[in-house]
Design goal:
Elements (H helix, E strand, L loop, with lengths): L7 E8 L2 E8 L22 E5 L13 H11 L4 E4 L15 H6 L4 H15 L3 E7 L1 H12 L3 E7 L12 H12 L1 H21 L9 H12 L3 E6 L17 H9 L4 E6 L10 H18 L14 E8 L2 E8 L10
Parallel strand pairs: 3-4, 3-5, 5-6, 6-7, 7-8
Antiparallel strand pairs: 1-2, 2-4, 9-10
Helix pairs in contact: 1-9, 3-4, 4-7, 5-6
Length: 339
């Protein structure tokens, strides 16, 4: 198998007695050394590395190779980008927990993510790492940030702050299917939502019983300390923008209040994206917002990103009734695609 291209390299690191495997997207410019020749102590001041974590059991390429696209784009701008499989996931060694969702929600992968960020920062010779997590990966990212000295920023994509059930009962699934197909079912569903509004009003600002209290505590720790955090939301079922479905607890408003006055949290709703953000409008909007956010909080020093990298092409697309100029990733065949 081809192990490297001009822009990408398959790498592995030994951590906590396990071999973790990932992909290194080399930044353009004077710091584009292969990972194999990088040495701790090298001076790369002004450079921030970006670390992508798995979303639940998805491989590090993410849905539709969306993480590949984003990592490549950020490396083109000069940011070293890493996509790694955590223990037991993808290509990495280790056993997957039989209760993977519960393991993640309890912060089980935080020690691995923290150790990984520390090792990569030392190898690349920098002190700043931005961790990106999607869905369940965002849970790991928050837990890791609370214990990781090298983590200087978080990007959370459709995070959740409750304790979801891995699989709903079969009766519940059948009922949901009937509601979606039946006009009577949809009417009853709307009435049920309105009834939940009353319960929500009586509860006030108190989170529901299935809130992930440990996660909310870690969030308050990192967000309250002023860590720059960029949060993406995709429209939910029967929801508007970042607001939840009628009758559902508004976790976004809750965590913003928990963050306090010193927080640097930005929330962006991508109206035309789905939960994965892997469709064209989603992945391009996410890329644009992250690039602007990186320029704001982690500007590159002594390096000018090219206005239009050679592997990107300019296209226009329609979004929210306005035409926007963006950059589209040029696909190419190589042995590393999707890895």
């Amino acid at each position: 198998m081809q192990q490297a291209t001009d822009t990408r390299e398959l790498i592995d690191v030994e951590l906590l007695g396990l071999r973790l495997r990932g992909t290194f997207h080399r930044p353009v410019g004077p710091f584009a050394e292969p990972f194999s020749v990088m040495r701790s102590g090298s001076s790369r001041q002004g450079r921030t590395a970006i670390l992508f974590l798995n979303s639940l059991a998805l491989p590090r390429a993410a849905t539709g190779d969306s993480a590949v696209y984003w990592a490549h784009s950020f490396a083109e701008r000069g940011y070293p980008a890493f996509r790694f499989d955590l223990p037991g996931l993808g290509d990495s060694d280790g056993e997957t927990s039989t209760d993977l969702l519960d393991f993640i929600n309890a912060g089980g992968y935080a020690p691995s993510a923290t150790a990984l960020a520390k090792e990569l920062a030392a190898r690349v010779g920098i002190s700043e790492v931005v961790i990106i997590g999607h869905c369940a990966g965002s849970v790991t990212a928050v837990f890791a940030a609370a214990a990781c000295e090298q983590c200087k920023g978080l990007i959370l994509m459709d995070p959740y702050f409750h304790l979801p059930v891995a699989k709903r009962p079969e009766v519940r699934e059948k009922l949901s299917d009937w509601v979606r197909r039946s006009s009577i079912g949809r009417m009853l569903s709307n009435l049920y939502d309105r009834a939940k509004v009353v319960r929500l009003f009586l509860r006030g600002a108190t989170p529901p019983g299935n809130a992930n209290v440990a996660l909310l505590g870690k969030w308050k720790q990192v967000a309250g300390a002023g860590l720059p955090i960029l949060m993406f939301k995709a429209p939910g079922i029967k929801a508007t923008g970042s607001k939840p479905r009628l009758g559902e607890f508004d976790y976004i408003q809750h965590v913003l209040k928990l963050a306090g006055r010193k927080s640097r949290v930005m929330v962006k709703t991508v109206e035309k994206a789905d939960h994965s953000f892997a469709n064209r409008a989603g992945r391009e909007a996410v890329r644009e917002e992250i690039e602007s956010w990186l320029d704001m909080y982690f500007p590159l020093q002594g390096f000018e990103a090219s206005a239009q990298p050679a592997s990107l092409s300019t296209v226009s697309y329609k979004q929210n009734d306005s035409t926007r100029t963006t950059m589209a990733h040029s696909s190419h065949d190589c042995a590393l695609e999707g890895r």
